[in-house]
Amino acid sequence: MTKFLLGRLVSGVIVIVGVSIFMFFLARVIPGDPARLALGPEASAAQVEAMRQQMGFHEPYVEQYLRFVGGAVNFDFGRSLYTDNPVSQDIAATFPATLELVIFAGLAMTLIGGAMGIASAHFKDRWPDNSARILSLLAVAMPNFVWALFLMLILSFWLGVLPLTGRLSESLAAPPAFTGLYTVDALIAGEWQVFLDALAHIVLPAVALSLPGLAQISRLTRTNMVDSYDRPFVEFARAYGFPERSIALKWALRPAIIPTLMILGMQIVALLGNAFIVETIFHWPGMAKYGVNAIVRKDLNAMVAVVMFISVFFVLINMLIDTLVSFIDPKIRLKA
Amino acid sequence: MSNFTLTRRHLLATTASAGLALGLGPIMPAAAAAEKRTLRLADGNIGQADPHKPVDFPGSILMFNLYDFLVRPLPRGELEPSVAQSWEISEDGKTYTFTIRDGIKFHDGSTLTAEDVVFSANRMITMKRGYAFLFSAVESVEQEGNKAVFKLKEPFSPFLAALVRLAIVNKKLVMANLKDGEFGEFKDYGGAFLSSADAGSGPYRIVTHDSQSETVMEIYPDYFAGFASNPPEVIRSKFSVEAVAVRQLMPRREIDLTRLPLPPEIVLALSKSEGISIGQDRKPSIFHFKMNTRKAPLDDVNVRKAIALAFDYEQLYGLLQVAGQQQGIPIRGPIPADVPGYDPDVPLLKRDIEAAKAALAQSKYAGQQHEFDLVWFKGMALQEKFALLLQANLAELGIKVNITSAPWPQIVEMATSPEASPHLACVATSLSTTDVDSMLWGEYHSSSAGTYLSMHWLHMPEIDAALEKGRQITDAAERHELYKELAKTIADQYPSVFMYQGTDLVAFQNYLKAPGFVDPAASIPIMAGNYRYDKMTMDV
To answer: CA of A73 to nearest chain B CA: how many angstroms apart?
Structure first.
């Protein structure tokens, strides 16, 4: 097991280093002088040069990269050219909002998508399966920004049952920061009104964000479970008279869940990037929007830092999923 | 199936409850009505709180409301004394002495003095950020009792107007909050502190500031210049708001005022919503097709003239109409209306295809086939319509136009050399202060070449000389005549298709009275000049 984890760790570090090199140099070769962009067209040449010096843009790329790596290991990514804050401060301020959104969207994907998949497989070609298939197709066919607008229009604008934008109502103060996740912090502080309000605010963006992934999880679980039901070991279990519940959740689902878990890992990380549009529509102050704005404005330090952050998150989530899968399927662990 | 416990009902109930728990969640009432008059602004960008760093719209709104200035801009670009009770200009035009008004208090209760003015000017000049370029002529700033004395390296008549960008910060408060930095004894010059707090004496003060999402300000009742009746007491500036969210939030009274480009369909929808009006923010800006005068065949003035004459201005004005409002007014050359140097007697350029063909025939490239690259900024969808219109117009002259859109960083890169600049670039230019020099210098002086403002690459010694002279003359009437003549010189060179003077459409609730958006005579012609909350009234 240790060997397995070490292997995953080494490959994760290689991925992170590779991404850092790629992003660092890519950020510098795309067109546009970042200092000029930040200072505006009327800034004098002296102003632009002063900012280049201040940001270290005049140094050779390799030196800049080594300085970047030295800072990054201490969570220091330099200053944002646009907000003028330390990038680490901006990320610390925006990441919890995105993480909270991703957690809720991930939960929706796993629980609703998984349940739909199991139901579809078990009631194959009957109405629960057909309904789930139609819902999945709708969820996949429409991009999440359309879902966002659609849900917003119905549940907020017309029915007025859920808030339109933001993380919390204006009349409420954010709970004392512990994790940065408003729902969790409100629970820790015992502020029920804040908890319910934060929950009401996160429902629409989380559901809108989760729908395409949810549909994918549902379809994948169904397909693999249907396949499992045709396998001899399920026939064997039935022949021995095991209860159907046990056959469904243990014999059919267990082998079927491995590809689902692998996809789930990818989907959860993809949510970080996809969250941009949902964050924009719901005025959700998250890191995905910050990252995309950094790219649009060529805010070098911020764009590299955000991509690095997502990469580390990607590696960690995949390590977690790999470990989980290795527990479910000993063959994978033993092969490693 | 007799012993099957995972029933359909069971599964569906589980799925439904998960869906309800995650999909619908608790139904919450809307936020309780605020007790104070609260103005919620939807801004499309993010805002920096440090008044000496940003050059953009949200930063300017914060600057004008949190801080005070020696002089403040008025309608028609005039200046009124503010922190400076009065001032004297030496005969050689190199020394400006400002007498500081007594009794102005910063938000922490301390008194604003000449020392704070000196500190603020030095902070801006030393940090070389934001509008520091407006103060490049300053040699020294000194305190003499209750006076602040600015000594210039040479006469610089736009200096007084530049002071509308010199926010005065509380020296003691800033010095008490220094962090490590590169400015010697001034460390970071309070950069970290002022990025989230204010040290001003303006009509509003910061309660909380998050440059990514929202700034909350509250009224500063002791503001020395007073307020309009029933001014907003709390301001919530929401950043990075999208037009589509505004469309849904405004009818629910969750947004009171906008500051972001609104697509025509959203303006139309909002204008039909009960209780919402559409107004105009008339900041002086010009939309151009800049023509690269260093690229053949646009190096021939006749070809440029032909393009300007072929453009269908009437059709353009039609494109600018939304919900009974104009997003721009016709322009008569390189100087916007109501700015010194503007000549209302110059006739508007009209489409004249025969004259355009005649001009083309007079060029050294007569009879040749031409193909131009036209680039527009991807962030402004309206520009694509302008580009398509020009493309159709030039097809009548036998000129082919290849249209491409580019993100802003790419346009900035293109502007760095004549070779990289396209034949035609759709860009907007505007004034930084109330002085015409703050627009024309960046566009037409050869020392400023290499930015998107000068993508025409028209640099001539006589234009340089006129711009330099304009900085020396102090007499307003003489300056007006000089810039009028300069505008004619520039227009005769056809460096741009001067399309129109831009007007931003603004949506606001009817209970909000913001004079600058409804009355052209009350409009302050500077970016964010009409977003002074102390001049607004909320009848709620």
So the answer is: 21
**Would you list the domain boundaries of chain B?**
1-49+202-275+510-520+527-540, 68-190, 285-503
If contacts are CB pairs under 8 Å, which of residues 424-463 in chain B contact chain A? 432, 438, 442, 448, 451-453
Cis omega (within 30 of 0) on the bond before B344? no
Give the nearest chain A residue to B431 (CA atoms): A42
- Enter the ipTM: 0.76
HSE toward the beta carbon, residue A83, CA cutoff 13 A:
29
**The residue type at A232:** P
Fold agreement (B1-49+202-275+510-520+527-540, B68-190): no
Chain centroid to Cα B101, Å, comes to 29
Name the residue type at position B525: P
Sign of CA dihedral A212, A215, A217, A223: negative
Q: Does domain B1-49+202-275+510-520+527-540 have CATH number 3.40.190.10?
A: yes
* Domain boundaries A88-335, corresponding CATH code: 1.10.3720.10
Q: A47 and B129 in contact by Cβ < 8 A? A: yes
CA distances (Å), A85 to each of A302, B126, B127, B441, B514, in order? 10, 19, 15, 31, 33
Tell me the residues of chain B between 223 and 242 that have a Cβ less than 8 Å away from chain A.
236, 238, 240-242
Which ranges in chain A are annotated with CATH 1.10.3720.10?
Answer: 88-335
User: Are A162 and B28 inside 8 Å of each other by CB?
Assistant: yes
pLDDT: which is higher, B409 or B330: B330
CB A302 within 8 A of CB A34: no
- Phi–psi pair at A20, nearest 5 degrees: -65, -40
- Cβ atoms of B439 and B409 closer than 8 Å: no
Measured distance CA(B358)–CA(B352) in Å, rounded: 10
CATH superfamily membership of B68-190:
Dipeptide-binding Protein; Domain 1 (3.90.76.10)
A172 vs B: CB within 8 A: yes
How close A153 comes to chain B (CA, Å)? 8
Query: Does A8 lie at the interface with B, CB-CB under 8 angstroms?
Result: no
Amino acid (1-letter code) at residue B276: I
Rounded CA separation B107/B114 (Å) = 17
Question: What is the dotted CATH code of the domain comprising B285-503?
Answer: 3.10.105.10
pLDDT, one tens digit per residue, over B135-187 is 999 999 999 999 999 999 999 999 999 999 999 999 999 999 999 988 999 99
pLDDT in tens, B332-383: 999 998 888 999 999 999 999 999 999 999 999 999 999 999 999 987 778 9
Paired strand residues for B168:
B68
Given a contact cutoff of 8 angstroms between Cβ atoms, the answer to whether A121 and A229 are in contact is yes
pTM of the complete model: 0.84
- Helix or strand (DSSP H, E) at B465: helix B461-472
Q: Compute the 3-state secondary structure of chain A and give helix, strand, coil in percent, each to the nearest 5.
A: 75, 0, 20
Using DSSP bridges, classify how beta strands B424-430 and B234-238 pair: parallel, antiparallel or unpaired: unpaired
Using the beta-carbon criterion (under 8 Å), do B6 and A31 form an inter-chain contact?
A: no
Give the number of other Cβ atoms within 10 Å of residue B183's Cβ: 15
Residue B482 forms contact with A (CB below 8 Å): no
Q: How far apart are CA B505 and CA B259, in angstroms?
A: 9
Whole-number Å distance between alpha carbons of A209 and A280: 12
Q: Which residues of B471-493 are buried (b: 16+ CB within 10 A; e: fewer)?
A: bebbeeeebbebbbebbeebbeb
CB-facing half-sphere around the CA of B516: CA atoms within 13 A: 28
* Beta-bridge partner residues of B507: B278
What is the residue type of A266?
M
Tell me phi and psi for residue B341, to 5 degrees. Answer: 105, -15
- Set of chain A residues whose Cβ sits within 8 Å of the Cβ of B32: 169, 171
